Amino acid sequence: MEPTTALKRTPFYEFHRAASGKLVEFAGFEMPVRYTGDVREHLAVRTACGLFDISHMGEFEVRGAGAAAWLDRMVTNHVAALAVGQALYSPMCRPDGGIVDDLLVYRFEDHHLLVVNASNITKDFAWLDANRPEGVSLEDRSDATALLAVQGPKAVDVLRGHVDERALELGYYRFTTGRLFGVQATLSRTGYTGEDGFELYFEPAHAATVWEGLVAAGRAVGLEPVGLGARDTLRLEMGYMLYGNDITDQTTPLEAGLGWTVKLAKGDFLGRDVLVRQKAEGLARRLVGFQLEGRRVPRHDMRIRHGGRDVGAVTSGTFSPSLERPVGMGYVEAGLAGTGTALEIEAGSSALPARVTARPFYTRGTHRS
Amino acid sequence: MTFPPELRYTREHEWAREEGGVVTVGITGYATDQLGDVVFVELPEVGRRLEAGKPFGVVEAVKTVSDLYAPVSGEVVETNDALAADPAAVNRDPYGAGWIVRIRAADAGAVASLLDSLGYAKLVEDAHG
Fold first, then answer.
1. From the list B40, B60, B62, which residue is nearest A39 (CB)?
2. Which residues of A touch B42 (CB under 8 A)?
């Protein structure tokens, strides 16, 4: 990789260096891909607890009387239905149904917070701003926000005594504001791993207090810092989307199997016409999960074949540390999306036998849903 | 990063050690650091003839995949079958238990034309500017 001075650093950069994190470029940031090893970090999250720096993600504050109604025009899920203290996962579509990004919407008392993918911060802000009505304000708070994820069955044990007790009682996709190692934070029972856990938002000035506090509090339960490598294997075991791989501006939420986030009854929104039509006419292709025999791993952009025909492409693939076998996702002709369908993945000169599998691949996660 | 001085190296990050005309081949500690956890090594058949500089197998890591390139031409005389059960040996001990194949070199002198440890260290350093 070419060194460059243009890469951004999160408030935790020095801690990654100190923990011997291997730093790589990701979405314009210098981020840890791993510290000790992908498998070890992955299993730490499945069995104990992991600490992730995800401060590269973007945060936008939306304010104004019409904010909820406007957001409901911009995203497919139902923002106005949120209670204060509730969060929502949603795709944001273009008029043609292609996905601009997938994001979280938090409803605070006096504003909404959008959390977007790091790779899409500039694009999303421009898209939202261009579609913003008068009376609604949009502010990019990304550089003013530190974000850590604490994920794993022991996450509550790590935080106990260092947050207000009510934070530990939060349901899945609920959040509160309060104390975190003595500093002000937003504590959210959300994550991207399939395990119980929290995402913690606070001011960058408190980075050292919170990071060092979590590492010290986690020592007794085996908390480990976790890099982007294991973040990807954890999310893929759950069949969660990665923007740019599994969903893009060329795919719709229905094709991606995100129909549960598309609320056609809420009123008009960008992309609705196309999604209504897709629903009525049926889909040409669908995102499927598949498992493979053997240990060769499917990778992004490999072709998928069935009956001697090219039927699609791999969007994500990895070796699942929990299942100890390769898994992947990709788009195939809709008629081939049924569980058990035999596929072949083209890996160079090899054809890897695969079988369509229900997701999540990993079904023993401790997250509350 | 330093590399064992008694070994020779390819630009594709294999190491090679010649003993009595047989060349033991593995991948370097730099390669394993770049790859992350190795989960599978696709080994060639014993008896297969390899051509220097041509791919002969695959190393699958969790995050990525890499071809293996033959440092010298010759015939595969042994493969490290223990890697089937323990591919992590490539990460743990890349120059020892993590060896991959042994090749009877068509030209026993071919190994000497590969990079020495200092030349390889410079290549790695240059790659990182």
1. B62
2. 296
How many whole angstroms separate alpha carbon A334 and alpha carbon A56? 35
- Domain A58-142 class in CATH: alpha beta
CATH code of the domain made up of A284-369? 2.40.30.110
B30 Cα distance to chain centroid:
11
pLDDT in tens, B67-112: 999 999 999 999 999 999 999 999 999 999 999 999 999 998 899 9
A299 contact B CB<8A: yes
Per CB-CB distance under 8 Å, the chain B contacts of A321 are 62
Q: B-chain residues within 8 Å CB-CB of A232?
A: 63
Q: pLDDT for A137-147, tens place per residue?
A: 999 999 999 99
User: Phi and psi of A168, rounded to 5°?
Assistant: -80, -15
* Residues A150, A153, A155, A156, CA torsion sign: positive
CA distance A302 to B15: 29
Closest CA to A253 of A283, A290, A289: A283
d(CA B91, CA B101): 16
* Sign of the torsion angle spanned by Cα atoms A296, A302, A306, A308: negative
Residues of A with CB below 8 A from B37's CB?
37-40
Classify B21-109 by CATH class: mainly beta
Q: What is the pTM of this model?
A: 0.95
CATH second-level architecture of A13-54+145-236? 2-Layer Sandwich (3.30)
A281-317 b/e (C-beta count within 10 Å ≥ 16 → b): eebebbbbbbbbeebbbbbbebebbbeeeebbbbbbb
Helix (H, G, I), strand (E, B) or coil at B57: strand
Q: Which two tokens stand for residue B68?
A: 């293996």
Q: Give the residue extent of every domain in chain A.
A: 13-54+145-236, 58-142, 284-369
ipTM of predicted complex: 0.89
CA dist., res. A67 & res. A7, Å (int)? 33
Query: Does the CB of A229 have a partner CB in chain B at under 8 Å?
Result: yes
Which of A30, A38, A231 to mutate against chain B (most B CBs within 10 Å)?
A38
